[in-house]
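Trying the structure run again after the queue cleared.
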Amino acid sequence: MLPSFYQTFLQSRFTQRQFLFLQALLWLLTQYRTLRIEMLAQYLCLPVLAESCRCALQRFLLLEQFTLEHIWFPLVQHILSNFFPHNQPLYTATGIPA
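Done. Tokens:
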């Protein structure tokens, strides 16, 4: 489902259990196209109460690994260093109006 460089990068940031849970969550997001935690918890089909599943999902999404400093900045840095030439300028655009 994920490109191999995403898999290796995310596996280095999460435990095996967390990585498997993340893969399941990403699959649910692509299948059901919903971002409501209550619905995702319902679709997870874990052998626990729905409220417990919702709380577990919230705790997972609040892990320190999901912060900008721990995963998103290193991921962008990894992509830039491995997929773009070092000797050419790289132009980026932001969604912030001038």
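The first helix runs from residue 4 to 13. Worth checking whether this holds up in the mutant runs.
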